[in-house]
Amino acid sequence: MAPALEPLTATGLLSSRLNPLQNPNPLNPIFVGALSRRRKRGNRNGGGSRCNVLCTATSPRTMSSTRYAILGAGFAGLSVAWHLLKHTQKGSHVCVDIFDETGIGGGASGVAGGLLHPYSPKAKLLWKGAEFWKECLELLAVAEQANNAQRIKETDCVDGGIVLRRGILRPATSQKNVEILIENASSCLESCILQTLDEKAAQFLIPGLCAPFDLAIYMPGAVSIQPKRYLQALFSACQNLANDQSKSTGKERIINLRTQYVSNLHQLSGEYDSVIVCLGARVNTLPELSGKLPLRTCRGIVSELHLPTASRGEYADQSPSILSDAWLAFQGPRQVYMGSTWDWNSKIYDQNVSKEECARATEELISRASIFYPEIRRWSLVGAKAGLRAMPPLTENGSVPLLGCLNDLIGDRTNCMFWLVGGLGARGLLYHGLVGKLTSQAAISCDESVIPFEFIDWKKRMPCIVDDISFRFN
């Protein structure tokens, strides 16, 4: 048992020494209520469609206190946290605990390139692209507001913003690709338009660019972010929201970050109303889910390059970042992130990269990026980080994240509801706003049917779930 802890404030950071089942504040009525009650939810198996049979407990909760555990402090986890605080009914006490032993952005989210737009490599609007784009931009605005407020408070803060509004340019990679890009560019979102440029026009935006097939797609409304700074700002926004709600409603709202390892789901089931798993590729570290989800892992290395001080040819402040076989996410006139390699079925979770692997990956990426931006060969390597992504299966709608209730998959029959946000793949930044909103609404209402069926269609292919449904109906 961990040593006794001092009472926490409304928001806080808990160290890895904390026992996840220990009352973080003995005087906190939220925790006391969770220990003393065993909610009378009614029959989990009664009524509704098969989807509702799997996870609908009752109508939305009317209890005065609700506790949520979120596993993972990346894009998905912090999106879920924000939406839980935002959408939980105002007249209730709420506690949200985020568990992540690597801290905020310690996984693949923190290594993401940060290039944000709603289109496929062929410039086709992704499935639900308009919704993904809208929800993501809303979360970016929330994080920017929190970041700006923090900078005002800390007068000695020299950090800049978290969103770079410089657009993105995608050169055509083949003559066939030219025809496809032109066709798809005619159908785009008004909020993120696509423009076709010839090489001369593209070089006006990016001096030194090469467009071998005399065509590039320009997305002036696309943005790039600095992932870790964004995630820190989003967590600050959650803290601010919890504090504001506590003051305005008189009902305590708490959000904590617990930098500790959770070895299994069942250790949390007795203390929380819902547990939302947002671990990305690390979901396989949970024994209840290891090998049970239709996910593949892919490790990607991202290199950081600087233009030497003595070298001319700074990248213009307003020039767009570049998407090609290797992307270039420019952070300033002399700083760029370049990615990414693809190492399928890797099991390496660590962000750190050895010098040898860093050199090999950077050489590979420069050889690809220099086809379209030869000047990149003049830039010097600073270092590299790696992220292990969880890739979902390909469907008729593309690569769709996996959402839904997990109770039948893990065989849990407690009062705790388990939820999944997984398989965001290489588009975690774009997807995280909408999937976090949908999952939080499902968790609050105990109703999986609020999630569009395309996100939970993966469950039909899981024999353990199908068998359990048949058993329950017999």
TrEMBL record:
Domain of life: Eukaryota
InterPro entries: FAD-dep_OxRdtase (IPR006076), FAD/NAD-bd_sf (IPR036188)
Pfam families found in the cross-reference section: DAO
Domain FAD dependent oxidoreductase: 68-441
GO cellular component: cytoplasm
Protein name: FAD-dependent oxidoreductase family protein
